[in-house]
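Marked as duplicate of an earlier ticket. Keeping the data here for the record.
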Amino acid sequence: MTSAPGPARAHTATLTDVARLAGVSVATASKALNGRSQVRAETRQRVIEAAERLSFRPNQLARGLLAGRTGTVGLLTSDLEGRFSIPILMGAEDAFGAGEVAVFLCDARGDAIREQHHVRALLGRRVDGLIVVGSRTDPRPSLGRDLPVPVVYAYAPSDDPADLSIVPDNVDAGRIAVEHLLACGRTRIAHISGDPGYLAARDRADGARAALAAAGLDFVGEPRFAEWSEGWGRAGTAMLLERHPEVDAVLCGSDQIARGVIEILRERGHKVPEDVAVMGFDNWQILTSASRPQLTSVDMNLEQVGRAAAQALFGAIAGAPRAGVETLPCRVVIRGSTAHLS
């Protein structure tokens, strides 16, 4: 007895099939599908139509190898659980996804040895480039100039000016924050911020002071620095009110600090924003939306930082690298803690 034949298996079209149908060589078909300039327009169109008729889908890795690329990149962070790393990584991944690039994500957890291990592993996978995301805006050590692929640094700039770094403009962020408070009619503005060891804290204070100086003003008292916490916001506000009860606005270095500031103002009988306007930084929605009133804050546009870093890496891979530190603007998100909103 002979067994009945099974169902025919669908034939997966190959590049050879496309070339045969289009009446060209395999090499010409490959060049046409990869956009090479050596192919005449009418030949390319014939190859494309043949590929469509056969439902041919070229292997992405093979296409990349023909161009000397793998279509993969590495995203290396020092703080995967951090408040700032995640939106940057999301922005970068969005940009990579639009370009059909696969992403390898590695978390060095702030450990230089672990970071070097991840770099070697990513290079072993023949990634086309790397994005290195820091957990704070202070300069970080460069990975070096001898890597075989381009590198772009995001949020934390490289300490090597030959590298390209994409960072939020914290100085300008301080400026636009004060300009908003001035536009709300506030003139007696105090500043309570976090750890002065963070460049972001110093940059924001510098930008805010410059905006005040441009208006012929200065801070009420000196800026107060300590830690990034609600507890410090409460303690700093208690000291501020004892020495400067005339204050009519408090610019805070973070949303956590601002929550503590609002709590003490309420306990001391000050209405927000009628008596004292309060403004934060980072636009952390879990804090800004839960605050009463909801908190006006400066958004660092971190997803845009990630997208810009990915786009810069695309350019470097294509042969157009850039160098230096490039800053991106921030924006004020206005809510009820600085102005009554209808």
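See parent ticket for discussion. The chain is about 40% helix and 15% strand.
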